[in-house]
Design a protein that fits this description.
single chain; alpha/beta; ABC transporter transmembrane region fold; Rossmann fold; 2 domains; 4-stranded antiparallel beta sheet; about 65% helix; elongated
């Protein structure tokens, strides 16, 4: 029960503790030390006030329960003269300043460490999830969480701990105030309850606005990604202005949410000082007129009160600022849970030996309730070239994704070198795969780095680079570039043709040391002449790799060792080119339509 209550009211603290551990308590420890030193320094004002009144001796009674300090000074044989009191007071505040400085440095280090850990954890979490979960995820949310949300959570950390540190300071001042005058402590408590009640409505509205803002930011990020990815289509069809209005609508929503949160924060800030003065005036009147307290304790009580109330209002402001970004904490907490829940299982056995065989035995695969593949049996041997044909949606790409280890089967077995894929460290297997899709991957970096994947620019790597450039019919293109291999390619290859992008993608895979080449419509954007050149070069690779080709163009797979016809998630026919012309009416029609 207590655990549930603690989690409900300290959920964010639990989240921060999970990332920071014992460092959370060190931050609080600094606050306690600072508060105690400050309070002790303030307490020394009371002896000064008594000296101003020409008291022949310091009154222990006016120090209340803090009179033990006089015993400590007496034991240390310290005479409380004007000079000694001033020196003691100065010492407390000097030590407090040093501790405050050390606390500030430590807090900054902890915060930066937290941000670093947050980014690292979420990046690793993203890269360890299953591909099946990823393709069903909101890309805008992922991008917003890894970028903008991290900064907002960093602010949440700052304001949350500042609020809790203010609570600690309030408690310390309350304790010292109680030790001097218990009546004063009761009045401070009443004032704090009233102030908190007045601010509760602001808190609720701020938290609600923060959640709305996070949702709007996620959607906006998703729309921006789509704007960039589909820019060519939107431009060519005159649709940019329509899509732009959709984006502008969300910009307006985000602006309104930020303004709403800003107004709430401004209301809290504006009301802080008037409320503070009102409570101070009330306390002075109650203490002097109704309770008959002496002047010295009243003034010291007022100092403690002012400090406590100041921290109370500061705590309320920091807490409201935390609530303004609390939606981001909830979002990133949820994101981390999803990453852990959908983390890919890693088998213990690493694939270090060359790939000799791939076996799919009675496998089936489903997306939700939709059956995509059913009862697939397939044996692939070293150095074979296999083509896959079939209508769109027949399951060809899903089958390739299973072979690549991107998707796990719902039933059946997938064996790699005779070992069940469930028991393998698939990353070590995937490093032996070259995967070329119809969506060419281009990084915003030099051509050399795009193809070599940031390999060191040694003489050996340069020679290998020019070899694959030649094999993929890119030699003339590279030589035409002002910076040759050092030419920087724009984001997503926006300054390249579709054919150039695909040839660069193919060259990247040929540069790698792989055993398997997967080509999923890899030559679909190439003109006939370039496709013919690459096809001849691919023919030269037969016997060196397992080559699996998904193609609509039959010419691409005409010389494959085996061609599989896929229909509605099943392999209905298989054989070489000549066999299928005789056995499959569907294949024969494809050949006729493509005028082979």
């Amino acid at each position: 029960m207590l655990k549930k209550i603690a989690y409900k009211y300290f959920e964010s603290l639990v989240y921060f503790y999970r990332h920071l551990g014992y460092k959370v308590f060190i931050v609080f420890g600094f606050s306690i030390v600072i508060g105690v030193l400050d309070s002790l320094g303030l307490t020394m004002f009371l002896p000064l006030l008594q000296m101003v009144n020409d008291s022949s001796a310091i009154s222990a009674e006016e120090l209340g329960r803090l009179s033990f300090l006089l015993d400590i000074f007496e034991s240390a044989r310290i005479d409380l003269t004007l000079l000694s009191v001033l020196l003691i007071m100065s010492s407390f505040f000097l030590v407090k300043g040093l501790v405050y400085y050390l606390a500030g440095i430590y807090r900054v280090n902890v915060q930066e460490g937290f941000i670093d850990r947050l980014r690292t954890t979420n990046l690793k979490g993203l890269n360890s999830i299953t591909y099946k979960y990823f393709i069903g995820s909101d890309v805008g949310r992922i991008q917003n969480t890894l970028t903008g949300e991290v900064d907002r959570v960093a602010n949440a950390f700052k304001f949350y701990f500042r609020a809790l540190q203010n609570v600690i300071m309030i408690m310390i001042y309350m304790v010292f105030a109680f030790l001097i005058d218990a009546q004063f402590a009761i009045l401070v408590t009443i004032g704090g309850v009233i102030a908190n009640f007045l601010y509760k409505r602001f808190y609720d509205q701020t938290k609600k606005s923060s959640r709305i803002l996070t949702g709007e930011a996620n959607t906006f990020q998703s729309l921006v990604i789509q704007n960039v990815a589909n820019y060519k289509y939107l431009k060519a069809t005159g649709s940019l202005s329509v899509y732009q209005q959709k984006l502008l609508g969300y910009i307006e929503k985000i602006k309104d949410s930020n303004k709403r949160i800003g107004k709430l924060d401004a209301s809290l800030t504006a009301g802080r000082e008037p409320l503070l003065v009102l409570i101070v005036v009330s306390i002075i009147y109650i203490q002097t007129s109704l309770l008959g307290s002496g002047l010295g304790p009243i003034l010291i009580s007022l100092i403690f009160f002012y400090r406590a109330l100041n921290y109370l209002l500061q705590m309320q402001m920091d807490w409201n600022r935390f609530l303004a970004v609390s939606g981001s904490v909830e979002n990133i907490t949820s994101f981390e849970k999803e990453m852990r829940k959908n983390k890919e299982d890693i088998g213990a056995h690493e694939v270090t030996e060359p790939i000799e065989s791939l076996s799919l035995r009675n496998i089936s695969f489903e997306y939700g309730n939709t059956v995509v593949l059913k009862n697939i049996d397939l044996e692939i041997s070293k150095c074979q070239t296999i083509g896959f044909v079939g209508e769109s949606g027949s399951g060809k790409t899903t089958l390739i994704n299973i072979i690549a280890g991107l998707l796990t089967v719902n039933s059946g077995q997938y064996l790699i070198n005779g070992i069940n894929s469930d028991n393998l460290n698939l990353e070590t297997f995937q490093k032996k795969i070259g995967y070329i899709t119809q969506d060419s991957i281009i990084f915003n970096d030099s051509l050399f780095n795009n193809i070599t994947f940031w390999a060191e620019k040694t003489e050996e790597n340069l020679q290998k680079f020019w070899e694959v450039i030649t094999k993929t019919a890119l030699l003339n293109f590279v030589n035409s570039l002002p910076e040759k291999e050092n030419e920087v390619l724009e984001h997503n290859g926006i300054n390249l043709s579709g054919g150039q992008k695909q040839r660069i993608s193919i060259a990247r895979e040929l540069f790698k040391e792989v055993d398997i080449l997967l080509l999923d419509e890899a030559t679909s954007a190439l003109d006939s002449e370039t496709e013919s050149i690459i096809q001849r070069n691919m023919e030269d690779l037969k016997g060196d790799y397992i080559i699996l080709v998904v193609a609509h163009r039959i010419a691409t797979i005409k010389n494959a060792d085996k061609i599989l016809v896929v229909e509605k998630g099943k392999i209905i026919k298989s054989g070489n080119y000549e066999d299928l012309i005789k056995k499959s009416e569907y294949f024969k029609n494809l050949v006729r339509l493509q005028q082979l």
